[in-house]
Structures are given as structure tokens and as C-alpha cells.
Design a protein that fits this description.
Length: about 120
Amino acid sequence: MNIKESGLIVFMERFEEGLAFYTSKLGLPLRQRKADLAILDFGGSYLMLEDRGVASDREKTKAQNPVIIRLDVDPFEQAVEEIRDRGVDVTVRVFDWGTIGVIVDPEGNRIELKKALA
């Protein structure tokens, strides 16, 4: 098998709102757009947003969404401030294995910024 690229697909109930969040608030560049899907650059892979998802007004449980979108960033503190400056709530948590910034998208999907290892 020769994998040329990998990606994730997230289904959004409120597609336009979700697309605006991922492009404007998280700053992911739009690669391609169709009526009911969008492909975003995602750090060497892609994140595809598609219509026909199920939204939640709070963070989804692991049973509702067993996947976390993770972005390893460097410098971490600068990335957190950049996202906060765009009006996004980021909760920083420190563990013995590393530091993350927790974000929840408009549909309740969890996203984590992770402090990249040196």
C-alpha cells in the first residue's frame, strides 16, 4: 500500500458555521469547497468537513464522538494566544505526559492543541 496522504472527516449539522469556525477561528486554509463538503489543510494531511452531522450544544461524550482532533503546535503558548485572540475559549491542562489546550467546536467536537515535544 502506498499512502499518498491521510485525512479525517468530520460531519457537521451546521456545515456553514462549522466551516467558518475551522477556517476563521482555527486558521486552517481552505483547499477545496463544494456545496456540502470542504477540504482544509491540516498539517501535512487534510480535514474534510461534510454536511449531515449531528450537533451538540456542549462537548460531546466519548460515546457520541470517540475521536479527538489533535494539533501538535510549537510554540504552544503563541498558538493558544492566537486562538484566544480570535475569540475561541481554550482551556490549558498540564499532565505528567504533556500540555494540551482543549477547544470545543460549535458542534461539540473536541479539539486539542498539544505542546510539541522539543
